[in-house]
Amino acid sequence: MFADRLIKSIKKKGNPSVMGLDPRPGLIPQFLRDSFGGDLCQAVFEFNKALIDAVADLVPAVKLQIAFYEALGLEGLRAYHRTAHYARERGLLVIGDVKRGDISSTAEAYRDAHFHGYFQCDAVTLNPFLGYDSIEPFLKSCIEGGKGVFILVKTSNPSSGELQNLKVGDEYLFQYLGRKVADWGRDLIGEYGYSSVGAVVGATFPGELEDLRNIMPHTPLLVPGYGAQGAGGTAVANAFDDNGLGAVVNSSRALMGAYKLAEKPEYITAQQLKRYTRDEVLRMRDDITGAIKNRGMDIREKF
Amino acid sequence: MFADRLIKSIKKKGNPSVMGLDPRPGLIPQFLRDSFGGDLCQAVFEFNKALIDAVADLVPAVKLQIAFYEALGLEGLRAYHRTAHYARERGLLVIGDVKRGDISSTAEAYRDAHFHGYFQCDAVTLNPFLGYDSIEPFLKSCIEGGKGVFILVKTSNPSSGELQNLKVGDEYLFQYLGRKVADWGRDLIGEYGYSSVGAVVGATFPGELEDLRNIMPHTPLLVPGYGAQGAGGTAVANAFDDNGLGAVVNSSRALMGAYKLAEKPEYITAQQLKRYTRDEVLRMRDDITGAIKNRGMDIREKF
Questions:
Q1: 3-class DSSP state for residue B271?
Q2: What digits encode the pLDDT tens for the residues B59-107?
Q3: Which residues is A61 bridged to in the sheet?
Q4: Host H or E run for residue A206
Q5: d(CA A213, CA A201)
Q6: If we measure between CA atoms, which residue out of B91, B67, B94, B84 comes closest to residue B118?
């Protein structure tokens, strides 16, 4: 079951941080550009591989934002596939941040593509705008194939409230949706009390995050918005339960671009890339686990 | 401007029908499977090419549902690219049914992929769940690059009401969203009074369709749900304005599988495939334009 695999890995590494691998071309270090000449997609894969090698012992999972691979065409999507495969080889769970959502027969095609086909991931993000029949085909693979989903409930972007914070009856849309998602995941709860049907809830709205943690006590949260988007450890602490579990926090730009803290980032070496990335992952881990501890919780002590 | 190109093409062909190219493997005729041996993706492209050749003089546009290509991996996506390219060569507009939706910097990557990169289309479908900043990057390409978007407002699937028909204040969510989409497209209205910012509104909910036609008088509607999903000409007539314009109606399965009406579809020839597809497109055209005429409108007479 996906939820149990995720939580076991979080506990083993003592870290709820997920490394986002979103290859914006401007992030690729010069030494990789030099080594792979004009082959941007090979450089993307080698960059991802170097980042995975740097922190595979420190993080439970990676998240791949497929848009940045689609923007590079077929070779970009080959780099996505190779990255997902390599991450799994290194013992990491792979979350495909694809935010797909379509009518049921089309959702089946997306499910086949992203769970069982070329883009194979352990879990994917989904958009709930079309309702349950757009989600259901994926749940089948959660039950039978050990896969997981994270359904958008409250996203991290500035205009997320336009729809998500509409008042429906006496609650907000994100609350209504939170209850739905909790319900959809009811039959997929594993040994730690968490479902393989998770939710995406941005760190940039700490009030909503705290609220949704309460509304969906068995739903693991995938929390974007930490780091480059502005949220810190205190903001994301709301995502965790009293045992320090129940969430993973993603950071992409701040980890992939950590080496830019170097005095001369254009001359960075492979060895230095690794060190800067590890340092930033450790800083993020300590920031989040520290904030959790301040609230009286601890991932490592309690388990 | 996309809206004008679309309407000119509809008027020229006297037909608001769009052919959906959703290559479910079960639809590919046997003679194409035989010709291209084990190469399913080549067979998909040749099937699409044959369908385009069959009706290029009869329809203004094709719509490609990318999920069915993603399910076939990289070679499937190559077939998507080749199909889009070939359709444009034959003078058809190409709508990428991708339903993407993500935070702004990610939306830029999707825009680059689907408007200007390998998956280049004239227009794409978008999911509005994340609000305006997920849409805005695409609007830039509508203004500067002559592209178009169709934003999901009321989808054709059975559970679409779960979110879309929630009551927000004294209106339904789809109505609220309809007003938003109309507003987002206000600066992109062309010579026929229609915007390059369109909306997806399913034919399976004729009441909502009529309502949204009134709420968004300058918004072209992309109407799925005709044919295999159950809606007929009378249901979709509500999508059109008093001049018989303002909408395109998509059919995928009923057109791609029209040849299955043959007595022995497994022995169908290229020539017969063409005839069955044309016949079904003509039937659909006459069904829709007939229903429009019954409401006192006519695409061809008025223009």
A1: helix
A2: 999 999 999 999 999 999 999 999 999 999 999 999 999 999 999 999 9
A3: A18, A93
A4: helix A206-215
A5: 9
A6: B84
How far is residue B1's CA from residue B3's CA, in Å, rounded to a whole number? 6
Task: Compute CA distances B14 → A3, B20, B201, B285, whole Å.
Answer: 54, 18, 22, 8
- Cβ partners under 8 Å of residue B235, min gap 6: B203, B204, B206, B209, B226
One of B8, B11, B49, B99 is an active-site residue; which one?
B99
What distance in Å separates the CA atoms of residue A60 and residue B1, rounded to the nearest whole number?
48
CATH of the domain at A195: 3.20.20.70
Task: List chain B residues with CB under 8 Å of A157.
Answer: 103-104, 130-131, 133-134
Q: Give A119→chain B minimum CA distance, Å.
A: 7
Query: Per the CB < 8 Å rule, is B133 touching A73?
Result: no
The partner residue sitting opposite B166, judged by closest CB among A107, A134, A173, is A173
Across residues B222-231, what is the average pLDDT? 85
Count structural domains, chain B: 1
Q: Indicate if the pLDDT at residue B293 is higher than 90.
A: no
ipTM above 0.90, yes or no: yes
- Domain with B50, as residue range(s), is 2-302
Question: Which residue among A71, A100, A132 places its CB closest to the CB of B159?
Answer: A132
pLDDT tens-place string over residues A217-233: 999 999 998 987 777 88
Tens-digit pLDDT profile for residues B111-164: 999 999 999 999 999 999 999 999 999 999 999 999 999 999 999 999 999 999
